[in-house]
């Protein structure tokens, strides 16, 4: 028997157990179907079960208000960030919740439960019989036909009516979690399909959705370095400084190293950094200057082999160093190299393992029916892979590092590819770190309103890289749509222009300097509604510059199961191709075209919002430097300030971000979904932030 209707099932359970569920109890969770037939129900479970009761956390709804309260420039609490302990305390389940659940367990003779460190759940061991009496259910073994793995689960379970509001969910329960393909492979003890060291050495990222590289033969560093007359063809540090009026730095607070995230085997090397410093740093950065390495779960941040170095890592460092030096930079290289080579890394990018490493409470944090990392999506540690020196055989790092005040991340995927619960749980964590004064700055994406199609990026969600049955619906990026991070789109100078001309939204059609279409990523979420801080800007945009495309209006429901946003259903038969109810991306922009770098011993020009994010992040880092020197707090979550004072940015009003067979959106006066509010004006930003408490 694989499936019976819920009603019939309840009757059957009652019949088989011979004990009706008492009227004091209610069904807490029920699984309606076994799905694709992957799982096969076997005999009754036996033995001892590791039980966990996820407790309802308080104040989650008010978390947003708390963040706005200390991020809004008009708030008396501006800048009064919380400590990590204050965050745990504010969101832990109430004493009433802990009391009610403990009392219920005690009534069943369960007294020796453990309350987790983040206060989110109670854990205890129970025999199957004990658990079945507690939950008025029956546990069976379920076998995963793909791996042979077996796990206990039930079809539904009950809790007392008065306890229900205090329980998020209970495991083992109705969930059937497929082990990741990694574990499946390990389970089969097979070494097939696993990378060798040679694969690692020769690995070249085939599809950087946030970075596109090409060498421009005609250009030489000598032509690019001396003066500002060639900023239209090569963006050097001097060009960036001139565009945004950034004076050389001279402060370096001991606790203000700038954070930069790397994955996908992106390693820096000293030789390339030295070539870059020697040729391009208009301020004097000495040879052998290099970042600190925070190595998360087996990450490797640097290499001494030129050919192994990664252009993304070098680009990030080479745009940021000239802005922040003499301040230091900290590279976060996340996940062991085998996972970094994992094709499915494009779905995860290691953000959850990064967040675990900087906030231990996230490792076991429960929200939207998920606790901890998602099996099958996130890497699991220890990595039991037999290949030496590639796998990280320690346990998952939880709270092993302090976050930097500003974290710059030039990686990401698409909102439509990740389960809703997974995204929202992760987004809450950006909120919690925002409460602690940390700024997360993300690149908004390089494929305009869509995503690269299968021929460019094998992991993209459809043949065209766009959504819906016709492949014409715009495809917003992830995790960018989370309202608690700051997204940076890309701008450029067109030939003949100088740093004194206004920039345009970056767009390079394929076949020019770069192999693929590159356009500033932007659009509207299908998962998150428009946040308050953005409402006026978006209302003005739709009123004054309504895009000519048909649209739909809706937000996908909160899901407590691992389903991905069904954008086609949301659009229905409206014919709409973008959403007018979603959070808009990006928030701001910075140059991301013809960026001069050294990589693999050679001078190169690169393009991508990959450059824009670390430029903007480095500027925030500079403002933190000045605020810290004046005994003020860090800038933390900056969006409420940016949207309240858009005049601290240079509005970009020219350009488009093509994708999905359209010319995309247009840059217009005010906020727009390709350049946000505009590019930085450092003196104005600094003056504003120094005037805030
Ligand atoms: C500036 O660079 C251009 C080449 O990009 C060159 O033609 C010009 O002579 C340079 N000017 C100065 C003053 O060095
Ligand atoms: C430090 O840099 C600022 C500009 O950011 C400048 O005004 C100041 O004079 C510099 N101080 C020193 C000691 O160089
Ligand atoms: C830097 O951080 C450490 C650890 O949080 C703290 O003890 C120290 O006082 C900080 N230093 C400054 C100059 O703020
Ligand atoms: C710095 O490194 C570059 C490249 O390795 C080299 O050409 C240059 O001579 C070095 N400069 C100094 C001052 O050592
Ligand atoms: C500048 O780069 C060239 C290679 O393009 C290299 O030969 C030279 O040493 C570099 N200059 C400095 C001062 O590092
Ligand atoms: C990484 O960088 C550090 C600091 O420069 C250096 O000591 C170490 O040898 C480098 N590792 C590799 C593999 O190049
Ligand atoms: C990646 O995930 C997809 C979809 O879940 C799966 O079909 C594929 O086998 C996975 N690939 C690897 C290499 O794990
Ligand atoms: C973990 O890896 C280290 C270093 O490669 C090795 O010395 C150790 O034996 C490994 N431990 C296990 C349990 O495999
Ligand atoms: C993918 O995009 C490229 C570049 O825009 C285009 O040349 C190619 O035809 C597209 N392939 C598919 C399958 O749509
Ligand atoms: C989704 O969750 C949020 C936060 O818990 C809640 O405020 C909202 O009402 C929920 N929306 C729906 C459609 O259930
Ligand atoms: C505006 O953008 C277009 C490309 O969309 C470009 O050709 C043109 O030169 C830009 N105009 C200005 C004034 O920057
Ligand atoms: C108290 C407790 O069970 N903590 C868990 C938190 O998550 C980590 C990583 O998944 C586990 O190893 C711990 O056991």
TrEMBL record:
Domain Peptidase S53: 234-692
Signal sequence region: 1-18
GO biological process: proteolysis
Active site: 312 (charge relay system), 316 (charge relay system), 610 (charge relay system)
The record's free-text note on cofactor binding: Binds 1 Ca(2+) ion per subunit.
Cofactor(s) this protein cannot do without: Ca(2+)
Record carries keyword Metal-binding: yes
InterPro entries documented for this protein: Peptidase_S8/S53_dom_sf, S53_propep, Sedolisin_dom, Tripeptidyl-peptidase_I
The keyword Hydrolase belongs to this UniProt entry's keyword annotation: yes
Annotated Gene3D superfamilies: Peptidase S8/S53 domain (3.40.50.200)
CDD domains named among the record's database cross-references: Peptidases_S53, Pro-peptidase_S53
Binding site for Ca(2+): 651-652, 670, 672
Location of the protein in the cell: Secreted, Extracellular space
Any single Gene Ontology cellular-component annotation: extracellular region
Protein name listed in UniProt: Peptidase S53 domain-containing protein
Keywords: Calcium, Hydrolase, Metal-binding, Protease, Serine protease, Signal, Zymogen
Positions of region (Disordered): 180-200
A GO MF term: serine-type endopeptidase activity
Entry superkingdom: Eukaryota
Species of origin: Salinomyces thailandicus
UniProt feature coiled coil, ranges: none
């Amino acid at each position: 028997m694989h499936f019976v209707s819920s009603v019939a099932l309840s009757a059957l359970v009652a019949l088989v157990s011979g004990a009706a569920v008492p009227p004091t109890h209610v069904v807490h969770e029920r699984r309606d179907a076994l799905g694709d037939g992957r799982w096969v129900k076997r005999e009754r479970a036996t033995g001892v079960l590791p039980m966990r009761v996820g407790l309802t956390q308080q104040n989650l709804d008010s978390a947003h208000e708390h963040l706005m309260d200390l991020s809004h420039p008009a708030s008396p609490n501006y800048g009064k960030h919380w400590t990590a302990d204050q965050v745990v305390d504010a969101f832990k389940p109430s004493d009433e919740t802990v009391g009610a659940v403990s009392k219920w367990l005690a009534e069943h003779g369960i007294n020796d439960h453990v309350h987790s460190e983040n206060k989110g759940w109670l854990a205890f061991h129970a025999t199957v019989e004990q658990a079945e009496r507690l939950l008025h259910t029956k546990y069976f073994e379920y076998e995963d036909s793909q791996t042979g793995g077996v796990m206990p689960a039930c079809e539904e379970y009950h809790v007392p009516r008065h306890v229900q509001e205090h329980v998020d969910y209970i495991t083992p329960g109705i969930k059937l979690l497929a082990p990741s393909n990694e574990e499946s492979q390990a389970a089969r003890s097979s070494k097939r399909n696993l990378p060798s060291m040679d694969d690692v050495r020769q690995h070249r990222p085939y599809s950087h959705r946030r970075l596109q590289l090409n060498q421009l033969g005609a250009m030489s560093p000598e032509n690019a370095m001396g003066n500002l007359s060639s900023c239209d063809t090569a963006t050097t540090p001097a060009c960036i400084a001139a565009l945004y009026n950034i004076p050389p730095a001279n402060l370096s607070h001991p606790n203000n190293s700038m954070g930069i995230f790397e994955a996908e085997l992106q390693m820096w090397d000293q030789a390339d950094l030295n070539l870059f410093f020697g040729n391009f740093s208009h301020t004097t950065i000495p040879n052998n200057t290099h970042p600190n390495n925070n190595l998360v779960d087996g990450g490797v941040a640097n290499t001494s082999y030129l050919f192994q170095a990664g252009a993304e890592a070098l680009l990030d460092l080479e745009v940021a160093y000239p802005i922040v030096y003499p301040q230091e930079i900290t590279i976060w290289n996340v996940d062991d190299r085998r996972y970094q080579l994992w094709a499915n890394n494009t779905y995860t990018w290691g953000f959850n393992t990064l967040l675990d490493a900087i906030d231990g409470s996230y490792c076991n944090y429960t929200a939207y029916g998920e606790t901890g990392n998602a099996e099958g999506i996130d890497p699991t540690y220890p990595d039991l892979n037999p290949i030496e020196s590639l796998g990280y055989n320690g346990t998952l790092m939880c709270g092993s590092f302090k976050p930097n005040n500003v974290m710059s991340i030039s990686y990401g995927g698409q909102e439509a590819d990740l389960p809703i619960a997974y995204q929202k749980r992760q987004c809450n964590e950006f909120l919690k770190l925002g409460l602690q004064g940390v700024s997360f700055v993300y690149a908004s994406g390089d494929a305009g309103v869509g995503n690269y199609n299968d021929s460019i990026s094998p992991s993209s969600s459809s043949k065209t890289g766009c959504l819906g049955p016709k492949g014409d619906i715009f495809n917003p990026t992830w995790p960018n749509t989370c309202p608690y991070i700051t997204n940076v789109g890309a701008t450029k100078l067109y030939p003949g222009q100088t740093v004194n001309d206004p920039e345009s939204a970056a767009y390079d059609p394929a076949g020019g300097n770069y192999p693929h279409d590159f356009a500033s990523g932007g659009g509207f979420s299908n998962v998150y509604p428009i946040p308050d801080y953005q409402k006026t800007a978006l209302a003005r945009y739709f009123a004054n510059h309504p895009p000519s495309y048909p649209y739909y209006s809706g937000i996908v429901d909160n899901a407590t199961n691992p389903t991905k946003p069904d954008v086609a259903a949301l659009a229905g038969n409206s014919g709409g191709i973008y959403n007018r109810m979603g959070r808009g991306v990006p928030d701001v922009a910075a140059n991301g075209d013809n960026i001069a770098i050294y990589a693999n011993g050679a001078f190169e020009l690169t393009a991508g919002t990959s450059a824009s994010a670390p430029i903007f992040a480095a500027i925030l880092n500079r403002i933190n430097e000045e605020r810290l020197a004046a005994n003020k707090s860090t800038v933390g979550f900056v969006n409420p300030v940016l949207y309240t004072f858009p005049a601290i940015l240079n509005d970009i009003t020219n350009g488009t971000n093509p994708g999905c067979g359209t010319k995309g959106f247009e840059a217009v006066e005010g906020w727009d979904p390709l350049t946000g509010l505009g590019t930085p004006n450092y003196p104005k930003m600094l003056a504003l932030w120094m005037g805030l408490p």
